Amino acid sequence: MAENRALALLRRVWPVVSLALILLVIAIAIRLTDDIVLEDVYIEALAKLVVVVGLYIFVGNTGVISFGHPAFMAMGAYATAWLTIPPNIKRISLPNIWPALAEAHVAVIPANLLAGLPAAAFAFLVGLGISRLAGIAAGISTFGLLMIVRVVYSNWEDWTLGFSTIMGQPQYLTIWNSFGWGIFAMVVAFAYQESRLGLAARASREDEVAARATGVNIARQRLIAFVLSAYLVGVGGAIYVHFIGTVSIETFYVDMVVITLVMLIVGGINSLAGAVLGTIAITALIEMLRNLEGGFEIGATVIAAPRGTQEIGLAIVMLLILIYRPKGITGGREITWPFAPRRR
User: What span, in angstroms and rounded, lies between the C-alpha atoms of 56 and 272?
Assistant: First the structure.
């Protein structure tokens, strides 16, 4: 009986377990190559994975496209900087910050978890209005949110140094603790999508009229998804700056909007598997195109792709996916239990 219950539990959580196994196999393979550059690429991919999975919580479950989630990344990034940069460096680079924050020095893991809270609080305030919108109106409003955060943070020089870069962040990410953060993000997203709240959000995505008729408060469900998504994206922003070691508001603007949305859409916007596999696929494509731009030697001849190949390549892949597989690589489905008996 206990064995049957354990098997049933494994089958239920298999969608997230299978993704964790895929990430683990890739991590082990990269470690066996002992390639430092490839390891850094994978660590950056896992940092972005947290953001893309956070984006999936809102976009994938509600069907509302958001162009503003990098704003939450920025809030998480600056929050973790204020908490983790050593006080002696903050006294020099941020002399006008609050004295309590100037003397604060929190360990990186709790600081990253705390960094998502300002993003979640802000998402709750603005989400009271955004959650009542739909379609293009909601998308444009989220992009407006991104522009507002960028203007505020770029002019808040006492705390953010404006367009300058804050340095001194501890770079603690390894391939294994970044793998742990990826698992954390997937577990949060999977727990939400399997809950009653996630089911109600997907009901509103599929048919708003029918969802309302069955008692679903669409605005409330979108607000819940928006706040949870913002928290996880804020955590992802904090993790990302602990990889690059610096914080700049320019990091969290249009380029980040494009790359995170491309990862989610190419993988499959309506599934957690799509968010994870899309991140891996686009990261691999970008690295391949970057190497082509860098060039390779054939005898005495150096062959290199022209500059801009990365952007053109991403655009072509995006167009092909939208034309021939509009639901993404996964088709909007999760990875199913592979050992079930086949039906005739």
Answer: 7
Q: Give how far Cα 197 sits from Cα of 11, 13, 22, 221, 222, Å.
A: 21, 17, 28, 7, 10
Coil, strand, or helix at residue 161?
Answer: coil
Segment 14-71, tens digit of pLDDT: 899 999 999 999 999 999 998 898 999 999 999 999 999 999 999 999 999 999 999 9
Q: Which domain holds residue 194?
A: 14-254
Q: Could you tell me if residue 60 is inside a domain?
A: yes
Which residues, in sequence order, are CB contacts of 146 under 8 Å at separation 6+? 67, 68, 69, 70, 71, 253, 257
Contact between 40 and 174 (Cβ < 8 Å): no
Looking at the domain assignment, is residue 106 inside a domain? yes
Altogether, the residues listed in the chain come to a count of 344
The Cα 319–Cα 340 span in angstroms is 35
Measured distance CA(107)–CA(296) in Å, rounded: 43
Instruction: Give the tokens for residue 242.
Output: 């602990």
Alpha carbon distance 115, 238 (integer Å): 7
- Domain contains 261: no
pTM of the model: 0.92
Listing DSSP states for 34-103 in one string gives T-HHHHHHHHHHHHHHHHHHHHHHHHHHH----S-THHHHHHHHHHHHHHHS-HHHHHHH-TTS-HHHHS
Domain count, the chain: 1
What Rg do the C-alpha atoms of the chain give, in angstroms? 21
